[in-house]
Specification:
2 helices; Alpha-D-Glucose-1,6-Bisphosphate, Chain A, domain 4; mainly beta
């Protein structure tokens, strides 16, 4: 399902799995290239990203981009792609991928 939730376009998919298991997969840097089609490789000291995580990602083009997660809503003060999980029941959830409609500058704290 496609949804516009300004300033994002959201792609939502129901998943037959507990929300904590899906979130674990989505934040595991070692698994990101398996489900993130634009990412070839992730280098990060934290296996699971969180506020304060730093590292770099290699895009499928071969370009490396450094990142700092200042919170789970943006990277380096710039509105970035994101993902989150919403629990539906103990065995079902929504996996939500967010794509910014445009790049928006934010204050880094």
């Amino acid at each position: 399902m496609l949804n516009v939730a300004y300033p994002f376009i959201e792609i939502r998919q129901a998943v037959e799995a507990p929300s904590d298991e899906v979130l674990n997969i989505m934040t595991d840097t070692s698994l990101r290239p398996r489900w993130g089609p634009s990412i070839r490789r992730v280098e990060c000291a934290d296996r699971h990203i969180k506020a304060g995580s730093t590292g770099r990602v290699q895009l499928i083009s071969g370009l490396w981009i450094k990142f700092v997660v200042t919170n789970l809503d943006g990277v380096l003060g710039v509105l970035a792609t994101g993902h989150r999980v919403e629990r539906i029941s103990t065995t079902r959830c929504l996996a939500i991928f967010e794509i910014p409609i445009f790049m928006e500058s934010r204050t880094v704290t």
